[in-house]
Target: Iron-sulfur cluster carrier protein
Amino acid sequence: MTSPDRNTIETVLQQVHTADRSASVATLGSLDAFMVRDGVLHVAIATDRSRAAALQPLLPELERALVAAVPGCTAASVILTAHRAAPPQGAPAQDTPPPAASGHRPLNLGARPGKAATGPLPAGVGVVIAVASGKGGVGKSTTAVNLAVGLGQEGLKVGLLDADVHGPSLPRMMGVSDRPEVRDGHLVPPHKWGITAMSIGMLVNENDAMIWRGPMVMGAIGQLLGDVEWGALDVLVVDMPPGTGDAQLTLAQKTALAGAVIVSTPQDIALLDARRGVAMFEKMNVPVLGVVENMSYFCCPNCNHRTELFGHGGARAEAEKLGVPFLGEIPLLADIRASADEGAPIVISAPESAAGQAYRTLAHTVAGALRRLLDKKNKAAT
Model:
């Protein structure tokens, strides 16, 4: 289906009312963004916190109305994003973002001679995949860094984007301290360990807190995709923030995700969140490349005794239950933590260690899937 025009969607927003018909979706919020992917219409409605409670019950009816109004639309997904109202003229601003945030473009890159790259993929990038988790603390970023560097060792041209705006950890894990160059309004990302990497953590002080609302986060991710000179890449690996929210929707809107890798730990609580992550990507029609069980077991460095601190095999069983591939087990080892703190991924610092081999096996498996995706894409283009 072709993308609907903005007027069509805004008309539907005016037609869906509260139960007492005192307000419509259009009066309680405004159309922030929309995109169509595989017949599914994704819509973001901007509102403030005081009106979100009134809007939330209207979303199921709004989704049905959008499907009925937009030709070729098989399903609709609507989320709410929070915009902060502008302060009165001359009044002191509260919770004010940086001056460069105008238009939700928080990265001050200076004037650009032309428009930012548009389209389903950043210029020169073959495919984009996400590394995600349903919750924090499961080792997702460590997995993303070692997977990206491991894919580079498999012979692919790789970029790594840290989309966790609130908790960027890529600079420390990659050992990158220099700020990227700004050239003609675009960022030139650093190259290290065989891959190109970019994070908002390279633009701010390590101790600064990114106190940004949803639209600011979405704008930053859009800039990190479109305003970075990624160059010719086979794959761009995106380290997602934990959970399901604005960042995930923004990626679905800004680029065509070819697949997602879900990271979980073995215990039941983590697997519940991993299940939600799989469901989120399925709703966005993004293929799940597989599930990784991190912290799968602990090996004592003195006696080599294996202990399953968080249980074992839960992610494999969950993958089988959900009908998605199981990509492997990563042990819980002090060397993984130490290598991340030192800025050298363990696939570089200790490639023959148990953890290094586990990550390299993961990279080899994912590389095979990516080559099939790239071959399919190249055949479709010829």
Summary: The chain has two domains: 6-82, 125-381.
